[in-house]
């Protein structure tokens, strides 16, 4: 009489565990994979597959690149295109200490830096990056340049996903903070002392953005009045309707402040802010000189650029 005995680890038989057979006299023993491995040291095909899968998972984990977040170290650019943090990453002149300073790059950022150098073609300083991010977007290059009467910096990304960062950027005029993305245009007139301290906003003028160059049109005409020369082009009907009254107020307030402050301890100065869908432009006109700053997102080149220039309207 033959007796059939099945041996399987608890719970495994219900899962269809593999069975092997040993014959001993009139008995047939069916042994599970786990039993064979624990008792006889026999490695089965299924366990080999599991081991191989585990090794592949471990290898994949080992080769996953560690991303380095640059956001906390260059975040200042998001408000008014402030470049102070970025310029510290390059050799620079520190006006507070009155001396040249070496590049100051936190140690935590070093693993993501591929190259730190200067272009022989135009003198632009740059940092090439790998596995670096800015607000979660892959950042591949940082550039700074000083040319003529202006300066600029550029962040280059690996793909077009960086366009989602537009709302992270904003303009702060000292009175309100306005995020980029929604077209808006306004002018602030303010007074400041000779040391450019105690800045005080005298008035704010909100203007319809009837033309993409409406801000330049107004500020050039205001500069012309201050310098006693005539604008190159005739005022359009739109300018006459929307901005001529504002120009008249700016000129009137400028003359009034000069008259009341014959020692010129305070200055009357004007700033215009124009926000568009992919950036902004700020123009400054005052006795201390004229200046413009532009920040724009360029989807084609995958860049965020901040450019400043002196001498606007001169």
List the helices and strands and how they pair.
Blueprint: E1 3-7, E2 19-24, E3 27-32, H1 33-40, H2 45-62, E4 68-69, H3 71-74, H4 84-87, E5 92-94, E6 99-101, E7 113-118, E8 125-134, E9 137-147, E10 150-157, E11 170-172, E12 177-179, E13 184-193, E14 200-206, H5 214-226, H6 237-242, H7 244-260, E15 266-276, E16 279-286, E17 289-298, E18 303-310
Parallel strand pairs: 1-3, 4-8
Antiparallel strand pairs: 2-3, 5-6, 7-8, 8-9, 9-10, 10-18, 11-12, 13-14, 13-15, 15-16, 16-17, 17-18
Helix pairs in contact: 5-7
Radius of gyration: 34 Å
Structural class: alpha+beta
Q: What's the total helix number?
A: 7
Number of beta strands: 18
**Averaged pLDDT:** 80
What's this entry about, in short?
The termini are far apart.
Describe this structure in words.
The protein is α+β, with helices and mostly antiparallel strands. The chain has helices at 33-40, 45-62, 71-74, 84-87, 214-226, 237-242, 244-260, and strands at 3-7, 19-24, 27-32, 68-69, 92-94, 99-101, 113-118, 125-134, 137-147, 150-157, 170-172, 177-179, 184-193, 200-206, 266-276, 279-286, 289-298, 303-310. Strands 4, 7, 8, 9, 10, 13, 14, 15, 16, 17 and 18 form an 11-stranded mixed sheet that branches. Helix 5 packs parallel to helix 7. The termini are far apart. 22% of the residues are buried.
List keywords for this structure.
7 helices; 314 residues; single chain; alpha+beta; 11-stranded mixed β-sheet; 3-stranded mixed β-sheet
